[in-house]
# Entry
Amino acid sequence: MSLLRAESVWKSFGGVQAVSGVDFEVRPGELACIIGPNGAGKTTFFNLITGYYRPDRGRVIFDGHDITGLPPHRTARVGLVRSFQKSHVFSEMTVAENIRTMVLFRKHRSLNFLAKASRLEREESEAVLDMVGLTGSTRAVAGTLSAGDRKRLELGITLAAAPKLLLLDEPTCGMSPTETASTIELIQRLNQQQKLTLLFTEHKMDVVFAVAERIAVLHFGRLIAEGKPGEIRANEEVRRIYLGEAS
Amino acid sequence: MARLVGLGALVAVLIALPAIVPAFYVQLTTEILVMAVFSVATNLLFGYAGMISFGQAAYYGIGAYTLALLVMTVGVPFAVGFVAAPLVAALFAAIVGFFCVRLTIIYFAMLTLGFAQLLYSIVFQWVSVTGGDDGLHGVPIPDAFHQATTYYYFTLATTIVSLGVMWRIVQSPFGYALRAIRDNRERAEFNGVNLRHYQLIAFTIAGFFCGLAGALFVPVNKAVFPNLLFWSKSAEPLFAILLGGIRQFLGPAVGAAIFILLEQFTSKFWYLLGLKSVYWPIVMGSVIVILIFTLPRGLAGLLARVRLAR
# Structure
């Protein structure tokens, strides 16, 4: 039983094969990670499963639905929500408004034209802000936040959508070591306490091996290895083409 | 709180206005109020939804023509025509918007302009119905509205209600969703928001209020003419938005006042200098350029910053 299953997914841009026949699945409740050197196809793979691009070939099955090529707003609606490598937040709105807007939307209340939004869904919005540790800056305009806080805010926005599977594209990118540590702690907490299934990409190897239960390695668009952290560490090919380069 | 007091004072001044100033200025204020509704409605798209429409005059003009045609040709009571006008404008906006929201940014803007010019040329050419270039004159209006002060109060009341409703909309969950789409389309979309639905609804609402403004304008001139739909008319609320301030709800209303007063006084001043009146837009244009460079967030934006700084 898998929550997400990519079946032999292909994508090329012009003459470049970005993703070549990747088979990959995410099981309910796990905390999985995709690694690979720059240009390995990690982000493209995310884009293929969330509907940003349509695969040239192959299928994507999520929670029993065939979501291949569905537009992003449909994939999000079935519970597949992602963050971006470069933080995407609602930059001219306050932190609280960022979260509240998306909580209201998920509760199907966004087609309410006359209620005062700032009075609705306070508790749930505050719970999300609390989870990502932004209760101290609810009135700050999102565009003025530090890079690390913007990342956390985007994480909060994705959580406001109540995902079944959360895809995080380099969640600690641009963060200081302290921020990185607290983000890792948050990811683990979401996985263990909220039973949220997570799939993330990451460049920092210490992060990957510290938290991931299962690791998949992409290289030139191919899935070259997959397994527990110990197995990946021991894998000859991975050591040669990936870890070797990194160290 | 200070904001409520200021607003109350403004409304009090507007109510007392006919007792203070000559009739000419009462009519001028009526025009400002009409343009305020037109501009704030356009800013629902521009400022709140991030959709720059170059074709809002189409819905303004459709509102005006709907009222004029229903009253003159069909013979319905004025009140019925007045209620129908914004609804017909909203219907047209929904149809045009259906196509336009498929495009973004400048392509969206160009398509709104294209549709508006299309509607303009239909009004211009369909002489048997619309009177073509001459427009329709002598639109019958209720007797009471012949009196400038009475019509001023009617316009003031309609303006307050319209702006009140639009204010509620921007503070509502729907308004929040529009701002989210404006700020980051992708983030909204990847949280499940169907951007086109929301933008189409916004476009239709804006069309409704632009049509209402157009209908409000009819008794001012007792006539309608194709220029109400022309592209230069679509530019006027955009000027008002830039002059008044895009990020303040009432900014475009302030801008509308600046625009109409500038138009009045530059043309008069020019005339007093003994220059041909056709050249006065040069003055108007220069003033707008200077204001936009010196007050990039508009006059209301400047006031907001002064308040924050204190």
The interface with chain B takes residues 50, 71-74, 76-77, 81-82, 84, 88-93, 97-98, 100-102, 104-106, 109-118, 120, 142, 154, 157-158, 160-161 of chain A (CB under 8 Å). The beta strands of chain A are 4-13, 16-26, 31-35, 57-62, 65-66, 80-82, 165-169, 197-201, 214-219, 222-227. Chain A is about 35% helix and 25% strand.
